[in-house]
Design a protein that fits this description.
Structural class: alpha+beta
Largest sheet: 7 strands, mixed
Shape: elongated
CATH topology of the largest domain: Jelly Rolls
Number of strands: 19
Number of domains: 3
Length: 310
């Protein structure tokens, strides 16, 4: 993901948080000053807030009209607001997903896993809500991870290197099996057999069996660290392994296994650290377990729009 895209995502998330606080009547005094400073800091902030406000207004109007037609009664503001915002976010999420998956050769939907055998004999397993584009040439086998996570078992062809592009970096197979996962601002690479060469930010390093590394776009990869063999691509066995990651990262991963959105009402909440082994088959149960362990409270505006608070 490039810096502009990352900034847009951060601005969008912040706009949603400010919008919710405004509707809850929590913006006054110092919070009002902070809100106005945020709006003035970047034209994109004001635009993001305007977009969220307009999306809600339009979607709420459509929802109310439809509800009166079917039921002849009004729903509570909270439920209507939740449905409207969820519908708006789903629509824009669908647009973003369509733009990302349009060039994909292989993809999976929510809750789906898929195994693909490429023309060179290499095998690729796609996790839930993932997509890749394949571009094989005479002297190079190139695969781009467009979304989600994938495990690669590479057929050895010395004259044609096998390279996975992800988040601005590359992972070159050195006769190997390995896993690549996109993260919010970069990618994570874990090796189950042999080794790979990871290049990012103008530097290159080797990651060997039972090691993993990660990097942000245009930034050198971190020094490899050991990882338990059973934790490499644990999703292939239906397990979601989270080791000392931020709640925000965990929610992003969990989001691949369910429809809907989960947001933190405070940035500090999403910064909390999480560790555990969960089931990918029961994402809502996983979310409840995380809430319990971190002492959080979930606000369900709808089943598809959940906010976490402390």
């Amino acid at each position: 993901m490039d810096d502009d895209a990352s900034d847009r995502d951060d601005g969008h998330d912040a706009a949603i948080e400010w919008w919710l606080q405004e509707k809850a009547g929590e913006i006054d005094g110092e919070r009002r000053i902070a809100f106005e400073a945020w709006l003035a800091a970047d034209p994109a902030h004001a635009q993001a807030y305007t977009d969220i406000t307009e999306m809600f207004s339009k979607a709420q109007g459509l929802r109310r009209a439809r509800y009166r037609q079917v039921h002849g009664v009004r729903r509570t503001w909270r439920a209507a607001a939740g449905v409207a915002l969820a519908a708006s976010l789903a629509f824009f999420g669908w647009l973003a997903e369509f733009a990302n998956r349009h060039p994909a050769d292989y993809s999976t939907g929510v809750g789906e896993r898929r195994t693909v055998t490429l023309t060179d004999g290499s095998r690729v397993e796609l996790d839930s809500h993932s997509a890749i584009a394949v571009r094989f040439e005479a002297g190079l086998r190139r695969v781009t991870l467009l979304s989600g996570e994938a495990w690669f078992e590479v057929a050895p062809i010395a004259s044609r290197p096998f390279v996975v592009e992800a988040a601005g970096g590359t992972v070159t197979a050195l006769g190997t099996a390995f896993d690549v996962a996109l993260q919010k601002n970069g990618a994570r690479v874990a090796v189950s057999e042999h080794a790979v060469a990871v290049a990012s930010g103008g530097e290159r390093l080797i990651v060997e069996t039972r090691q993993e590394t990660s990097y942000e776009a245009d930034t050198p990869a971190r020094a490899p660290v050991s990882v338990a063999a059973e934790n490499v691509a644990a999703w292939r066995r239906g397990a979601l392994v989270v080791e000392d990651r931020s709640l925000g990262e965990a929610l992003t991963i969990l989001g691949r296994y369910r429809y809907g959105y989960v947001f933190c009402l405070r940035a500090s909440t999403c910064a909390r650290r999480v560790s555990g082994v969960f089931s990918t088959a029961e994402p809502l149960t996983t979310l409840r377990e995380i809430e319990f362990f971190l002492g959080l409270r979930a606000i369900h505006l709808t089943n598809y729009l959940i906010f976490l608070t402390e």
